[in-house]
Prior knowledge:
375 residues; mainly alpha
Amino acid sequence: MSYIANTLSNLAAQSAFATMSVGNLIMIAVACVFLYLAIAKGFEPLLLVPIAFGMLLVNIYPDIMKENGLLYFFFKLDEWAILPSLIFMGVGAMTDFGPLIANPKSFWLGAAAQFGIFAAYFGAIAMGFNDRAAAAISIIGGADGPTSIFLASKLGQTNIMGPIAVAAYSYMSLVPIIQPPIMKALTTQKERKIKMEQLRPVSKLEKILFPIIVTIVVALILPTTAPLIGMLMLGNLFRESGVVRQLQETASNALMYIVVILLGTSVGATTSAEAFLNATTLKIVALGLVAFMFGTAAGILLGKVMCIATKGKINPLIGSAGVSAVPMAARVSQKVGAEEDPTNFLLMHAMGPNVAGVIGTAVVAGTFMAVFGIV
């Protein structure tokens, strides 16, 4: 009997119930909500499913994220900025930069959306964060998960990298919920119905030269952006050159999805109750939301200015796509415009600011690194 009792006692002591806290239960519930949003509602499942499952695992079995645990090794690839850079290569291989080349004015809308980053930076300083932590937190405003992880790593803010990454990816996934109310509040029905002229055709030569020229110009001015901008443009060159189809397909499919699995689960695994349920994390999540909302609003407001300047040729809704969530933000611009007029097609026009936002956020990250002397 004593043997059986000892065996049962050991089994009970080894179960997760023995160490489960109220905080762990809260985070498990949050993970289940994320899984519901991803699976039942279709909110960017490629991001939310691995993030939510990593969150679930670490709050049941914390050792999975401790040194020598499985997800610990995944997270080291985040800290070393390997996975964010590979994500950028995949994004470049998947994305058509033609709308941006055809309408260079889109760069202004992508730049305007970066206003949220600077609003969050000064907000973080006001909340007591040091300048490097404030810079790392502020990048959430670009709705760019890989850049958020990259900058936090380069600025030595690994202690808050988890909350930053989770906030950034969560807001990327929740773009269809967060952006539409802001878009409708800042535009009139007449503005939302504006139909834009078809974009001019972009030659193959232009598409080939674009990633090369952008890499040269940006990397010469801000060399620290080379890992992100360089990989983004390399992936796009794979796509547009037409001579390395196998590399383009690998970067945009197999490699991209492998990296998403590794990055998503490791990011989710940073959300143990002990690390996530505290005042610092709540501040970061709140600042990220404010930054994202400010960035969306700034893009729309500049879109309204450009609409007036062009005598109604630009639909202000495409300004909301200036955040870096590719292509989610562009889809939302299309969706909100189509709600007013089903025959209005804004997707390709919105892809211009969307791509410009990716480049803009990387440039802002490089600017922060240059300011703080990071090489």
